[in-house]
Every structure is written in structure tokens, then in C-alpha cells.
Amino acid sequence: MPRKLPPLTTLPSFEAAARLLSFSKAAEELHVTHGAISRAIKNLEDQLGVQLFERGTRSVSLTAVGEPYARAVREVLDQLATATAAATARYSSSTLNVSTSDGFAGRWLVPRLYRFHRAHGDIDVRVSTSGKLTNFLGDGIDVAVRYGSGNYPGLTSEFLTGEEVFPVCSPKLLEGAHPLRTPQDLRHHTLIRDSFPIDWATWLASAGVEGVDPQSGITFDSATFAMESAAQGEGVVLGRTMLVAADLAAGRLVRPFRHALKS
């Protein structure tokens, strides 16, 4: 035998109005108009053939029929909400969309993602790499990590850390026919470059090194590839504190001299 049910779309309006004893407050809570609440309740009363509210000039109250009906509807809606949450819990997840540079993602972020997943297993992470400023709305990005001043109109920025920029290389380059001992020894080695704003020309000038062509050598558009090339003994690259810390600690890269620039 089919169930005799009221118009189900009217029940949230009725429950809110009965709980708040106000059509206006119910409309505000449900983000609809006062008229929409009135029509929903009138439709429900017409379908049931009973009056649920006593309507005054400035207030409403539940009738003797409306009061127990409101309790029953509230209980049913609560049970439905609980069942819906339980049914969808295993399939629902939040996604955190992160945009950052290739170098920061590969050399710092990715090795630490397991910690985040261990603490927040219900959140999926999507990482996109770019050096350009992010259009948060258009690109669907939640958080971006960039090198810069932090003065971005319309955005909230938080300073993470300062960095130093300094040459790093494989331990192999500290030996051989032309061991790296002073900045002047760079003339005997291949310079490796990436797209970071502080380049070899800037570093060499600050160190007072002459006779070294800052445009010579190998160029990568990826800091990850540039650092890996240096670790393989291909030449010397300008490392940044956060990007080379792990390789320095592991001995894959070394810092042949101490001169550094603040980024």
C-alpha cells in the first residue's frame, strides 16, 4: 500500500518556521524569501487539510495539531540527515589545491606530504607547478607558495621563511685537476642555471669574481633538474636553503664556499 506523504519539499520550511516561530527567521535561515516560506506552509496545510499555525499580526504560533506534527517532522529530518551523512561519508572528501614552483614542490613539498596525509587522511591534495602568479578563482587554487614580496592586492599572504642563495655541487668537484676551493675556481667548472631571479651574474658580482661568463654552461627551466644535474657532478648550481637542505644533509651536495646572498 503506497504511503500517504506530505509534499516533501515543504517540510524544511515548516520545520524551520515551527522551530523559530517566525516565517521571516525561517526564510533567513534557509536563504529564501518570506513569501516562499508562506507558500510552502500554505501548500502543506492544504494538502493535510489542517491548520498548523495560528497567524497573528506580528507573530505565529503552532496549533494543537501543528505542535506534535512539528516534533515528528523534525525527528524525521534529523534521521534523514544522519542517514545521508553516513551513506556518503566513505565517498566524500575534501581537496586541497596547491600551486607552487617546480623546485619547491619537488625538493621540499613532496618529501613532506606523507606527514600531511598521516594527520589529514580525509583530505586529497592536488599540486600544480607554476612560477606565475595564481588566479585563485579561475584556476581553482586554495593556497599558493611563491617567492616574492608578499604584497599581492586582494590576497592574504603569510611569510614562510627567508632563504640564502649559494653555490652547491657534487663532492666530486672538490677533488680532481681543478678542485673547487675559492669562487675564482668556478672558471674551471660548468655553471648550471635555472629560472630563479638571483642568477649567476648577480652572485658572481657580489662575490667579486671576474673572468667567469655567467651565461655559459647548462640552463634548465626546472630547479629540480638543475639541482639533480649538480648532484650528478655536471657542474655548480646556485642552491636555495630550502631546496638543498636535504641533499646537503645527505652529502649528495656540498657547499664549496660560504658566500651567500639573501633572497
Write the layout of secondary structure elements.
Blueprint: H1 11-20, H2 23-30, H3 34-48, E1 53-55, E2 60-62, H4 66-88, E3 94-100, H5 102-109, H6 113-119, E4 123-129, H7 136-139, E5 143-145, E6 164-168, E7 191-193, H8 200-207, E8 218-219, H9 223-231, E9 236-240, H10 241-250, E10 261-262
Parallel strand pairs: 3-4, 3-5, 7-8, 7-9
Antiparallel strand pairs: 1-2, 6-9, 6-10
Helix pairs in contact: 1-2, 1-3, 1-4, 2-3, 5-10
What does this structure look like?
The chain contains 10 helices and 10 strands. It has helices at residues 11-20, 23-30, 34-48, 66-88, 102-109, 113-119, 136-139, 200-207, 223-231, 241-250; strands at residues 53-55, 60-62, 94-100, 123-129, 143-145, 164-168, 191-193, 218-219, 236-240, 261-262. Strands 8-7-9-6-10 form a 5-stranded mixed β-sheet. It has a 3-stranded parallel β-sheet with strand order 4-3-5. It has a two-stranded antiparallel sheet with strand order 1-2. By secondary structure, the protein is an alpha/beta fold. The chain has 3 domains: 8-88, Winged helix-like DNA-binding domain superfamily/Winged helix DNA-binding domain (Arc Repressor Mutant, subunit A); 94-145, 3-Layer(aba) Sandwich (D-Maltodextrin-Binding Protein, domain 2); 164-262, 3-Layer(aba) Sandwich (D-Maltodextrin-Binding Protein, domain 2), CATH 3.40.190.10. The longest helix has 23 residues, at 66-88. The mean pLDDT is 90. Helix 1 (11-20) crosses helix 4, helix 2 (23-30) packs across helix 3 (34-48) and helix 5 (102-109) crosses helix 10 (241-250).
